[in-house]
């Protein structure tokens, strides 16, 4: 079981009460990916929200030229947030760049949490939404810089 003290260090759980942390610690699972392991491929079935305890992963998408790196994630970062919300397949591939340990919450776990303790699930969704919004803002800024460059 993951310690509640460790969970409190993760942004998704920063505002959780001790009781909420204890609930989360009972549903989270752990997994280990040796360096070079493909965690999942783009378009693979939902495999849960994964939070990096230690290590690094690279997130990529296929392009005509090969793979485009979207992000390199490190401890306390998370991935799989879109699939845990909508249950759809993963929109990107993930590969371990180092030996990596993660904490996993599946969509089924999230749905159960939503049914049993909606306030706790809401807190997780709120923090994931904030992170997704940050990524979207960064993408919008990059897109507008590209548009400005093309039109100069």
How would you characterize this protein structure?
This protein has 152 residues and is an alpha+beta fold. It has one domain: Sandwich (Jelly Rolls), CATH 2.60.120. 43% of the residues lie in helices and 27% in strands. It is built from 5 helices and 8 strands, in the order ααββββββαββαα. It has helices at residues 4-8, 18-27, 81-86, 107-116, 118-151; strands at residues 29-33, 38-40, 49-54, 57-63, 66-73, 78-79, 93-96, 100-105. A 4-stranded antiparallel beta sheet has the order 1-8-3-6. A hairpin with a 2-residue loop joins β4 (57-63) and β5. α4 packs across α5. It starts with a helix and ends with a helix.
For the structure shown, list the relevant keywords.
globular; four-stranded antiparallel β-sheet; alpha+beta; Jelly Rolls; 43% helix; 8 strands; 152 residues
């Amino acid at each position: 079981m993951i310690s509640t003290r460790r969970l409190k260090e993760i942004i998704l759980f920063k505002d959780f009460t001790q009781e909420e942390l204890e609930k989360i610690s009972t549903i989270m699972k752990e997994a280990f990916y040796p360096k070079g392991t493909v965690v999942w491929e783009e378009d693979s079935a939902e495999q849960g929200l994964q939070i990096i305890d230690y290590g690094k992963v690279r997130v990529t998408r296929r392009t005509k030229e090969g793979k485009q790196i979207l992000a390199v994630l490190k401890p306390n970062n998370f991935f799989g947030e879109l699939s845990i919300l909508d249950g759809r397949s993963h929109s990107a591939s993930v590969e371990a760049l180092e030996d990596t340990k993660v904490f996993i919450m599946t969509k089924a776990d999230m749905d159960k949490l939503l049914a049993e303790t909606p306030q706790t699930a809401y807190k997780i969704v709120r923090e994931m939404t904030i992170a997704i919004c940050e990524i979207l803002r960064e993408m919008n800024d990059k897109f507008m810089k590209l548009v400005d460059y093309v039109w100069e």
